[in-house]
Design goal:
heterotrimer; A mainly alpha; B alpha/beta; C mainly alpha; A: mainly alpha; 4 strands; B: alpha/beta; Rossmann fold; Helicase, Ruva Protein, domain 3; 3 domains; 6-stranded mixed sheet; 11 helices; 10 strands; 37% helix
């Protein structure tokens, strides 16, 4: 076994370099926004295909439907009902559905869908450890990557501690069905001690990191490594070229 | 040459009214195990912080006097680079985890990576330390999923692995049960046997008496007594300044008051048993 | 304003994960207790008050980025969250959160900034309506009372924002009062609070 371990999942799309994945998804989002409904639809289809290729189709569709799709539908519905216009489709009490509202809603919804769908895909493709390794490889300060990883790790820990405090609250009879004032009063004793102990803990955490040489000068080493293959470089050049083409194309269309 | 040399050290925390240390002089030889005892507020933790350079570089305040480690004045080195010279472990296991390691293995590797140790050597040293600290069974566990006692051993191992000649260990067992305390002390003892210089603050006097070469009694920021454990625990000032004596010493005193003539002050229950058996004419080795 | 590099002490950057966690937990707890306000910026405000505008801005932004892992449509709100961290941090640098008059002024400024940014975002990014309950109120104001869309969005935001920001500012203010001088002094802006305590011996919190 070599001294450094390369983190791999075995899937070719997910094992692409994270920089390639990030750039690819950003370019897809830009493409989706530049040419209206057609480009949006094309990008959404591409994202579905890539998610399937990455072996993440079910997770992707489930997140996408619960977030992007729901928000888009709500926006179309609300705009249709609330935006006044000449072209009234039907009226129901104080509400009136208008063609102007529907078109406006579709416009906003398609923007949201076009920009957010590639992001849903990105979350499914990127592995946090690999992303951090790539950031370090590109010379980003270990302080930055530390904050990133520590933040992701600390949330479940603090959630557990809050659960303990909440249980104690419940034991004292504060229930979520109590009236609003009781509930708002329950909020502070739950979150207050958690905040104070966490802030005081920062001091010891800083000492720990200093003692372990976190701010020592000189080069660092890692047990893990990440690859940047020829395929990655070709894909990234391709993404930049695509970006240039669509931006220039958009400008030309505007100028005509 | 002395491993740690503290000379006329005084320190007052920023926004504090009184100094925490007042003219402390202390010399710890290479490979010596030195314990610092004293009541709460005597300045033990401040002295540890000063030896590690956290006072005054991290805990701000006014400092006079010097601390030298291996002949080098630590005021000349940043607290980050001092990590190569001095190890530091304290009481709270939870905050001594790096916060970014997924496994105990990675936790131990974190410090070595920061110092730029080659990966192959890191793996070798981690494997070795997992055995020494008897935590090999946890190697792939999440450090935060361990118990307090297990975490403290991981914290200690993560520091010891960095290989500094001098270790400052501040109340490592105050949050641990007796079994975990013994495990931690076994590990500290192994480091002493490996020739490292150890500065320890500890309230469990039976352990202090058993492991220390030298005991330093602090009171209100001043060194009151320095000497081998038998001397310090035999001195009346030790109890006057709020320190509890090891059980063996208390028993020996009670025996002496009742006319039992013990030749020297036993520091552990095992030593006391041996002495009493000798007096009774039993074979001590039995 | 202090130099950028001075704000990135180890103590300051270690506050960021805690601030983000407090934001997410505050938001979750508010939802669990069905409090109809968000309370998801307490951590950002606390961090901004202790470590200044840049660290505050990062805390706000990172909180939304992490929420976006579950729901990427939330990502644009990172603009609002970073703006809030920045504003609170700048006010903290000027010592707004050391006395009651300053705290009240601070709340007014933060609510104004928050309403301004969130209204602009609601209108330009989401067309005036989002999935939040406030949107129904916006719709009624706009459609039935004949108010212009911009005004409707603004009115519906002001009420919710005020309650939310009063709590989100007061919690950090009381937390800072509970911290020792020695702990405070380790954070970039800690001296501001320590000096205020030393000055105002009549201050009940000192």
């Amino acid at each position: 076994m070599s001294a450094t371990e390369t983190i791999r999942s075995g899937n070719r799309v997910r094992d692409l370099n994270p920089a390639t994945q990030v750039l690819g998804c950003l370019v897809l989002a830009v493409v989706a926004l530049l040419f209206g409904l057609v480009s949006m639809a094309a990008v959404v289809v591409v994202c579905f295909v890539l998610a399937a290729a990455a072996g993440r189709f079910v997770a992707f569709v489930s997140t996408w439907a619960k977030t992007v799709l729901v928000l888009s539908l709500v926006i179309v519905a609300l705009q249709t009902m609330f935006i006044p216009g000449e072209e009234v489709w039907w009226e129901w009490g104080p509400l009136s559905a208008t063609g102007e509202g529907f078109r406006r809603g579709t416009l906003f919804a398609s923007r949201i869908m076009g920009a957010a769908t590639p992001l849903v895909l990105l979350v499914q493709l990127v592995d946090l450890r690999r992303l951090v390794l790539e950031m370090e490889r590109r010379g980003i300060s270990p302080k930055v990557t530390y904050v990133f990883v520590a933040t992701v790790n600390i949330i479940p820990q603090m959630r557990d501690r809050m659960g303990v405090i909440m249980d104690a609250q419940r034991a004292r009879g504060v229930e979520t069905d109590a009236n609003w004032w009781v509930r708002i009063k329950a909020f502070f004793p739950t979150i207050g001690p958690l905040i104070i102990s966490s802030i005081v803990g920062v001091e010891e955490k800083a000492i720990t990191l200093e003692a372990r040489g976190f701010t020592a000068t000189g080069p660092r080493t890692s047990l893990y490594s990440i690859q940047d293959t020829g395929v990655d470089r070709v894909l990234r050049v391709g993404a930049w070229v695509l970006l240039a083409v669509v931006v220039v194309g958009r400008v030309v269309l505007w100028l005509r | 040459m002395a491993a740690v040399e503290v000379s006329r050290l005084s320190f007052t925390y920023a926004a504090a009214d009184a100094p925490a240390l007042k003219g402390v002089d202390l010399s710890i030889a290479d490979g010596e195990f030195c314990s610092i005892i004293g009541a709460n507020g005597a300045g033990k933790t401040t002295l540890c912080s000063a030896i590690r350079g956290f006072v005054p570089q991290f805990h701000k305040g006014e400092l006079t006097g010097t601390v030298t480690i291996g002949g080098k004045d630590i005021a000349q080195t940043s607290i980050g680079d001092l990590a190569r010279e001095i190890g530091f472990v304290f009481q709270n296991p939870f905050t001594q985890m790096s916060g970014i390691a997924r496994t105990v293995f990675d936790e131990l590797a974190f410090g070595l990576g920061n110092l730029g140790v080659p990966p192959a050597e890191i793996r070798e040293r981690v494997e070795e330390m997992l055995e020494t600290a008897r935590i090999a069974e946890f190697r792939d566990r999440d450090p935060f999923a361990l118990s307090g006692g297990q975490q403290q051993r991981v914290a200690l191992a993560s520091m010891l692995i960095m290989g500094q000649d001098t270790l400052v260990i501040d109340e490592p067992t105050s949050q641990l049960d007796p079994a975990s305390t013994d495990e931690v002390f076994a590990l500290i003892g192994a480091m002493k046997d490996a020739g490292r210089t150890i500065v320890l603050v500890e309230h469990k006097m039976e352990h202090v008496a058993t492991y220390s070469d030298t005991v330093v009694l602090l009171h209100e920021g001043r060194v009151v007594l320095t000497g081998p454990p038998s001397e310090v625990f035999g001195d009346a000032r030790t109890t006057e300044h709020g320190t509890r004596l090891p059980p063996a010493v208390l028993l020996a005193r009670a025996l002496r008051e009742r006319g039992v003539d013990l030749p020297e002050l036993p520091l552990s229950v095992a030593e006391l048993t041996r002495a009493v058996r000798e007096l009774l004419g039993e074979d001590a080795s039995a | 304003m202090s130099k950028l590099k001075d704000q990135f002490t180890l103590m300051a950057i270690l506050l960021i994960p805690i601030g983000v966690a407090i934001n997410l937990l505050g938001g979750t707890l508010a939802k669990q207790l069905q409090m109809w306000i968000f309370l998801d910026s307490i951590g950002t405000f606390l961090v901004a008050m202790l470590a200044g505008p840049v660290i505050g801005l990062i805390t706000g932004g990172l909180s939304v980025v992490l929420l976006s892992i579950q729901d990427p449509t939330l990502l644009p709100w990172a603009i609002l969250a970073t703006a809030m961290g920045l504003v609170v941090g700048l006010l903290a640098q000027q010592g707004f959160f050391t006395r009651w008059g300053g705290i009240v002024a601070g709340i007014v400024i933060v609510v104004a900034a928050s309403v301004l940014v969130s209204v602009l975002m609601s209108i330009y990014l989401y067309g005036g309506f989002t999935t939040s309950g406030i949107s129904i109120f916006t719709g009624i104001l706009h459609d039935n009372m004949g108010l212009p869309l911009g005004l409707s969005v603004t009115i519906s935001h002001v009420l919710g924002e005020t309650v939310d920001k009063v709590i989100s500012i007061l919690v950090p203010v009381f937390v800072i009062r509970a911290l020792s001088k020695r702990t405070l002094l380790k954070f970039p802006l800690g001296e501001i609070y320590v000096n205020a305590r030393t000055r105002g011996t009549s201050d009940a919190g000192a």
